[in-house]
Each structure stands twice: as C-alpha cells, then as structure tokens.
Amino acid sequence: MSDLKYAILVEPRSAVDGGGFTAIVPDLPGCSSNGETPEGTLAKVQEAISLWIENAKSQGQPIPKASRHHMAIWAALQTA
Question: Global pTM?
Fold first, then answer.
C-alpha cells in the first residue's frame, strides 16, 4: 500500500460553537474531527482518516486519491 498524504484544514471554532478547533479533509467527504487545541484536533483527524479509509475498504468503496496541494499558509484575522 502506498502512503497517502491528504490535505487537512484546521480552523478555529467560534465561542458560540463551543470554541476549540475543527479539522476537515476535503478529499474524504464527511471526514472531520474537533478538538480543544490545533495539535489535539490534528491527532484526532488523523485517526478519523484511518477509520474513513478502513470503512470505505470494508464496503468495497474506492479510496480517493489525495489532491495535489502545495504548502498553504492561512492567516486568520478578526475584524471589528
């Protein structure tokens, strides 16, 4: 099996949504996770990726190829 490297988007959640962070994997529909810190959220979403792939395989579904993403850096700004 080859290594798959999926892009992961980690975003802060608003206080109204409970705070913390949400991570999504755009190449794997429905694959996401939440956590209190960016690092914790990243660890949880990596587990979610493994479970997503395991579930797809058990159902005979194809595993999407990872999109070709280059490094991206996002800046979160709060406006008044």
Answer: 0.79
